[in-house]
Design a protein that fits this description.
Blueprint (H helix, E strand, L loop, with lengths): L13 H17 L29 E2 L6 E2 L7 E5 H6 L15 E5 L2 E2 L3 E5 L2 E2 L11 E5 L2 E3 L12 E8 L13 E7 L7 E9 L3 E11 L4 E11 L4 E3 L5 E2 L3 E14 L2 E12 L2 E2 L3 E3 L2 E4 L30 E17 L2 E19 L10 E22 L2 E23 L9 E25 L4 E20 L12 H6 L5 E18 L2 E12 L2 E2 L11 E2 L2 E14 L4 E22 L5 E25 L2 E15 L3 H15 L28 E12 L5 E12 L2 E2 L7 E2 L2 E12 L3 E8 L7 E5 L2 E4 L4 E10 L1
Parallel strand pairs: 8-11, 15-21
Antiparallel strand pairs: 1-2, 3-10, 4-6, 5-19, 6-7, 8-9, 10-11, 12-13, 12-44, 13-14, 14-17, 15-16, 17-18, 18-22, 20-21, 22-23, 23-24, 24-25, 25-26, 26-27, 27-28, 28-29, 29-32, 30-31, 32-33, 33-34, 34-35, 35-36, 36-37, 37-40, 38-39, 40-41, 41-44, 42-43
Length: 780
C-alpha cells in the first residue's frame, strides 16, 4: 500500500583502522586512481566527453567564487560531475557523503526530507527554525537556510561541490563545517534533451527528463522534471501500512538571455514536493518492521481523530506523514566590464512543511511520542559580487543580504500508556513559534602574486546578524503563568533578540614549485550564529545559546604525476572550535523525551585528507579518498562539569535513578563522551571502466565503489554507536553511442546494517539494499 500523508492523496578501532589503511594501500599499489572528490569540471572537459584521452583533464574550480584551475587552489574541495553521479548511483544529496573524506551524511530522525551533514565532526541534527546548520547548502550559489528540505533529488545537475572546513569569507553564513553547492545546468544553445525511466526495489518508479529549447541566438530555455515513488521499505505490523517510502517530484524552468555583449541574465524557477519519512524500524529476520499505532491516514485513527481536539489548528487532524512543498526562484545578472565580472545574485524560497511523526514504537493510536508541525518558511537573499584582476592581484568582493521569516505551529504529545494499557495521551505543548533573521555582510578576498611562484591570499568578511523570536501558546485553558509565551520568556530573563557582529578573516600562502606541484598553508575563521532551545515545553527552558566560532589551520599539496595521468592531493588540518553548539535528546524523569541545545564545550579536531586519482589507460578510471581525524571535546562548560559530578555521585551511591547521566555530552559512566559522528577513519575507493563490444557504436560500462567508515558515536551521550561498516555500490550498463543507455545498479549491495542515530531510546537503522534499472534516451 502506498504511504499517504494525513487524509490527502500524495502524488574499530584498531582492526578497523588497519582494514581501512590496508584497503588504501592496496588501492594505491594499483596506481589507477580517479577521484570523486575534486572540484567542478566543466561539462565540455569531463572524462565522459573526452573518453579517448589517457591524461586527466585539467579541472576548473569555483571554490573561491571565481574560475581557477584546481591544482592551484589552496582549498580542500570535492566535486561530482554528472558522470560521477551516474557511476556512483547518486540520486540525491544524501548519497554524496559516502565519498567525501571525514564526512558523514544521514537522514534526520523522522524526516526523510532533511539531511544531517557532519564534516570534520561539525554538524547538526536539529531541524527547528531557531537552529542553523554548520554545513551550509547552496543551490547555484544561493544559500538554503533551512535543513528541513535539504535532501535534494536531482533535476539536471552539472556538478556538486563540497568544501571542507569553514568558509567564513566567501560562502556566506554559518559555514563552520563546510558547504555543499549544487550547480544545475544552464540552458544549452542547441535544441536537445533526454528522458529517463526506471524501476526497482520496493516497487520504485522513477522518471526524469530535460529539454533545451533555444528561441534565438541570444535567448535559450530549459525545462526539467523528476519523479520518484515507491511503496516503502518498512512494514507497520500494527496498522498493516508501508512506511519510509520515497515520494517526490519537481519541475523546473530556466532561461538564459544574452541581452548584449557582456550582459546576460540567468533566471530559473522550480516547484518541488517531497513526502519522505525516516521512521524508526527494526530488523525482523531480514524484514524492516515498525510497531507504531499512529496511522498515516488520520481518518482511520490519528492524533485528533477521536474525542475533543487535542491540538489547535489543522495539525490536530494529521495522521503520520511528512509533506514538504518548496518553491524557489534564482536570478543572476552578469556584466562583464573589461577584466571585471559583476554578478547580481537574487534568491527567493518559500517552503511549507506539515508532519505528524511518532518517535515511539508501540501500538498506541496517538503515538507513544508524537511531534506535530505546520510550518511556513520564507527566505530572500541578495548578493552583489565582483571578481577580476588588477595587475598581479586577483580579487573577489561583494555584499550579501538575507531576510528570513519562519512561522511554525507545533505540538508535542506523550502517551502515558507507552508500555501498554489504557491510552492516556498528554499534550506536553501546543504553541506557535515565530522567528526572523536579518543578516548583512560585506566581504573581500585578494590573491597577490608576490613572485611567479609565491601567491599570498588575504580575505575578510564582516557579518551583522540579528535574530528575533516569539511564542504564542495555543492552549487557552492553560494558566497564564504556565503558557509558552514571549512575555513569560522575558519574565524568566530570556532575551528574545540576539545580535552578532563579527569579522571572519582568511589568510593563505601558496608556492608553485613547478607546474606539477603546489604547496599551501592557510588559516581561516568561521562562525555560526546563536539561537534558542525552541523545542522546550515550558517558557523557562527556551534558553538561548551563543555563537559557535572556529579557527581552522590547513597545510597541503596539489600534485600531478606521470605526465598528468595521476593526481595526488592532500590536506592536513586542525580545527579549534569554541562554544560548540550541540543538540541532545534524552528521556526525562517523567518518561517523556526532552530536547536541549546548548554550548556544552569546545572541540578540537585534527587529521588528514588524501585524494588520489588516475586514468592509466583509455576507458579506465579509479580513485581512492582517505580521511583520518581525531576529535575530542575540550573547554567543558561549568554546568557540564557539575552534571558530571552529580552523575558520578549517583553511580557511587548505587542510586536507582540517575537523571544526570546519559544527558547532553555526559555518558552513562559520568564521563565526557566522544564527539558524535566523527569516525577516526573513512575511506572510499572505486573504479569504473568503459570498453567497446565489437558491435557498432555499443560499449559496456561498469563501476564498483566502496565506502568504509570506522566506529563512531551515533547518540550524543554515547547511548548508541555506529559500528564500523563498508558500503558497496555497483553498476553495469550498455551505451548506444550518445543516444541511449541501459543501466542496472545497486546501492548498499551487501545490505549492511548499522545505527545512524538514537532518539527516545531507539536506535535508527540505515537504509536497506536497493536495486534499480534505468533506460536513458538522448534526443536532438
Amino acid at each position: 500500500m502506498r504511504t499517504q500523508f494525513m487524509t490527502l492523496p500524495t502524488p574499530a578501532k584498531r582492526r578497523a583502522s588497519f582494514l581501512a589503511v590496508a584497503l588504501a594501500l592496496t588501492a594505491l599499489q594499483t596506481a589507477t586512481y580517479h577521484t570523486a572528490t575534486f572540484a567542478q569540471a566543466k561539462a565540455e572537459e569531463t572524462t565522459e566527453a573526452k573518453g579517448n584521452e589517457t591524461k586527466l583533464e585539467k579541472i576548473t574550480v569555483t571554490a573561491q567564487r571565481r574560475e581557477q584551475e584546481l591544482q592551484s587552489v589552496p582549498i580542500p574541495v570535492s566535486t561530482f560531475t554528472a558522470r560521477d553521479l551516474e557511476l556512483r548511483n547518486i540520486t540525491n544529496t544524501l548519497k554524496v557523503g559516502e565519498f567525501i573524506p571525514n564526512m558523514v551524511a544521514q537522514n534526520n530522525t523522522g524526516l526523510g526530507t532533511a539531511n544531517v551533514y557532519f564534516i570534520r565532526a561539525l554538524g547538526n541534527t536539529e531541524s527547528i527554525a531557531t537552529f542553523d546548520p554548520p554545513v551550509g547548502t547552496y543551490v547555484n550559489d544561493i544559500y538554503v537556510s533551512r535543513q528541513n528540505a535539504n535532501n535534494f533529488s536531482f533535476f539536471d545537475v552539472e556538478r556538486i561541490e563540497v568544501l571542507r572546513g569553514p568558509q567564513g569569507t566567501l560562502f556566506g553564513r554559518n559555514t563552520t563545517g563546510g558547504a555543499m553547492n549544487v550547480i544545475l545546468r544552464k540552458p544549452g544553445k542547441a535544441q536537445q534533451g533526454y528522458i529517463e525511466v526506471g524501476g526497482g526495489s520496493f516497487g520504485s518508479k522513477t522518471s526524469r527528463g530535460s529539454v533545451d529549447v533555444p528561441f534565438s541566438d541570444s535567448f535559450f530555455t530549459k525545462f526539467s522534471y523528476y519523479y520518484v515513488n515507491d511503496r516503502g521499505y518498512v512494514r507497520n505490523v500494527t496498522t498493516g501500512q508501508r512506511l519510509n517510502d520515497q515520494d517526490s517530484q519537481g519541475y523546473r524552468g530556466a532561461f538564459l538571455w544574452r541581452m548584449q555583449d557582456g550582459l546576460s541574465w540567468n533566471l530559473a524557477a522550480d516547484v518541488t514536493e517531497d513526502n519522505g519519512l525516516s521512521l524508526y524500524n527494526a530488523d525482523d529476520n531480514g524484514t524492516r518492521i515498525s510497531k507504531s499505532g499512529l496511522r498515516n491516514d488520520a481518518s482511520a485513527g490519528g492524533v485528533g481523530a477521536t474525542g475533543a481536539p487535542r491540538f489547535s489548528g489543522e495539525k490536530n487532524n494529521y495522521g503520520q506523514g511528512n509533506r514538504v512543498k518548496s518553491k524557489s526562484v534564482s536570478s543572476t545578472v552578469n556584466y562583464l566590464w573589461g577584466d571585471t565580472s559583476i554578478d547580481f545574485i537574487t534568491g527567493w524560497r518559500d517552503m511549507t512543511q506539515k508532519f505528524a511523526i511518532d518517535f515511539g514504537n508501540t501500538p498506541v493510536s496517538t503515538g507513544g511520542f508524537t511531534i506535530l508541525n505546520d510550518g511556513r518558511h520564507k527566505q530572500f537573499t541578495q548578493e552583489v559580487k565582483a571578481a577580476g584582476d588588477i595587475g598581479q592581484l586577483s580579487y573577489v568582493a561583494g555584499a550579501f543580504y538575507m531576510d528570513e521569516k519562519n512561522n511554525t505551529d507545533l505540538g508535542d504529545l506523550f502517551n502515558l500508556a507507552f508500555s501498554g494499557g489504557a491510552n492516556v495521551p498528554l499534550v506536553l505543548a501546543d504553541r506557535v513559534l515565530n522567528n526572523t533573521t536579518k543578516s548583512k555582510a560585506v566581504y573581500a578576498q585578494g590573491d597577490f602574486k608576490i613572485t611567479p611562484q609565491f601567491t599570498a591570499t588575504l580575505g575578510v568578511r564582516y557579518t551583522d546578524d540579528k535574530k528575533e523570536v516569539g511564542f504564542v501558546d495555543n492552549r487557552a485553558a492553560a494558566a497564564p503563568a504556565a503558557q509558552l509565551t514571549t512575555a513569560n520568556m522575558q519574565a524568566a530573563g530570556i532575551p528574545t533578540t540576539l545580535s552578532t557582529k563579527l569579522a571572519t578573516p582568511r589568510a593563505a600562502i601558496a608556492y608553485q614549485s613547478n607546474p606539477d606541484l603546489m604547496l599551501f598553508a592557510s588559516a581561516t575563521r568561521g562562525f555560526k550564529s546563536g539561537g534558542w532551545n525552541a523545542r522546550g515545553t515550558s517558557a523557562a527552558v527556551l534558553t538561548p545559546f551563543g555563537i559557535e566560532k572556529v579557527w581552522s589551520y590547513e597545510a597541503g599539496w596539489r600534485m600531478s604525476l606521470a605526465n598528468n595521468t595521476v593526481r595526488f592531493n592532500g590536506t592536513l588540518f586542525r580545527s579549534d572550535v569554541k562554544d560548540l553548539q550541540t543538540s541532545s535528546a534524552f528521556i526525562s524523569p517523567t518518561g517523556a523525551v526532552s530536547f536541549i541545545i546548548q554550548n556544552f564545550a569546545g572541540l578540537k579536531n585534527q587529521g588528514i585528507e588524501l585524494e588520489l586519482n588516475a586514468q592509466p589507460m583509455r576507458g579506465l578510471n579509479t580513485y581512492v579518498n582517505v580521511g583520518l581525524q581525531d576529535a575530542k571535546y575540550v573547554d567543558i562548560a561549568p554546568a557540564i562539569s557539575n552534571q558530571q559530578a552529580e552523575c558520578r555521585a549517583s553511580i557511587a551511591a548505587n542510586a536507582t535513578a540517575r537523571p544526570r547521566c546519559l544527558q547532553g555530552i555526559v555518558n552513562a559512566a559520568g564521563e565526557i563522551s566522544t564527539p558524535v559522528r566523527a569516525p577516526k577513519v573513512s575511506i572510499s575507493p572505486g573504479v569504473s571502466y568503459t570498453m567497446p563490444t565489437g558491435w557498432s557504436n555499443v560499449r559496456v560500462t561498469g563501476a564498483l565503489n566502496l565506502s568504509y567508515q570506522g566506529r563512531a558515536v551515533a547518540g550524543t551521550a554515547e547511548n548508541a554507536f555506529s559500528e564500523a561498516h563498508t558500503v558497496v555500490n555497483a553498476s553495469i550498463g550498455l551505451l548506444g553511442g550518445d543516444v541511449w543507455k541501459l543501466t542496472a545498479d545497486c546501492s548498499n549491495c551487501s545490505d549492511k546494517k548499522w545505527f545512524t542515530a538514537s532518539l527516545a531510546g531507539l536506535n535508527y537503522l540505515n537504509d536497506p539494499r536497493r536495486y534499480s534499472m534505468k533506460l536513458h534516451y538522448t534526443f536532438k
